[in-house]
Amino acid sequence: MMRLYFLMTLKSESFGHFCDVDNTCEHLRFVHNFGKDSVLATAISLGDSTSDSVRLDGYIQRTIYPRGRLAYVFTTSYKGEPAILKLSWTPMDRMPEGAVYDLLLKAGVKGIPRVHDSGLLKQGFFGLRLEYLILEHCGSSIAEHLPPNVENIVRGTMRCLSQARAKGDILHRDTSLGNVMVGSSGKVKVIDWGYAKVVDDGDGDDNNTMASRKARISATAIKWKYNSHLVMANEDNHDPLTGTPLHMSIPVLAGAKVRGLADDIESLFYVILDVLAGVQVARDAMACAFKTADSITQAMVRAGCLSSKASFLRFFGISSCSDKLRRLLCDLRQFLFENSDGYIGSDLIADAETERGVAVGLLKPYVDQQTTGLLLVKETFTPKKSAKQVESLKQPDAAPGSSLIQSPGLVHISEEKNDLILSIKELGKRPAPAESDEELSGDQPGPSRNKPRQS
């Protein structure tokens, strides 16, 4: 969108009647052009409400990252219920968020918002599409609910992320502070699936499972007017670029060209640490693990900060923590960063396929039995396609007349990181001091620096 700034200077008539909204518009009604089963739709501005219109009550201010997508989010009501309206410009060669929700719903994934309505308002506009989603209002950010409900939040989020991966072949890839919501009833919902991707690793499945998966993916692509082969290849190539930097996993920060469920779980781990750090003023803590720097430096610093079980919380700015909560964080740390060879934080920088999750048994108190089994699913990483291979992909399920744009090239990681890996490995090999049974001492809680958002 930054390259198309001139669009802001054009009159609305230049775009056609895809969303005729002016300053006096209070209600929108979305009409599907060819029946409810069609995603092609038109937005009609209304002066008064109707039974199926949405009221534009308030625009939700969000931080905008120049990552090829632009979303406008409004609080609204739909058929008498609180709801969220999301209007998104997305490239034609990337995954529509509405298609992701379709796949999640077909797979029976729990912990996602209810979709009231969705569709496409504009297709092939300078290589972009405009889609809309009307979702249930899922509550507020977890920043307002931690730490009292931390176990419930971890249980619900991990169940949703693991079911999405195991049942729907989908990785969220942007688990962050504003994307995990808690409703008034305490139900946890994972939202904002706009950066998700479909994982194509069915080579080890039986023929019936593979055929069912391919049929489901192809049918969704036909419905949402995109080329599944091109989109899946481009999403693979965006693995090193996708996510919220503050909550990215160590392998992703280090430029890993492969991603798995463990990266989403690691992001959740950082989200919890971020919230806890935000509600206390830790004068004696060295919160270097959350200091922003270039990605590879941040990955190395974070790997060093996590090497000691006894002191890693201090490096994330947490000086005061209950025994119960500290036990949960230590168990998550061991699950993510230790295997039979010991601490693997630095190994994850050099090799994203380093085995993780050996200590999955530690998570049994926090997740149900089914989720424990899903966390044991092994990732099978496929080689990424070159730009030339992506460009030459066949288009059996592409929408006729679709405009496709090339994705940006991959980010290559400098070789200089290898000079620092050995020192971090040595740090991780040192024996950790004995863990004290006493709580970490610290200051009184202060105002949170985290601002919740709904996406």
UniProtKB/TrEMBL annotation:
Residue ranges of the TM segments: none
Top-level taxon of origin: Eukaryota
UniProt xrefs under InterPro entries: Kinase-like_dom_sf, Pkinase_fungal, Prot_kinase_dom
Domain Protein kinase as annotated: residue spans: 4-367
GO MF term (any one): ATP binding
Chain segments annotated as coiled-coil in the UniProt record: none
Region (Disordered): 386-409, 426-455
Protein name per the record: Protein kinase domain-containing protein
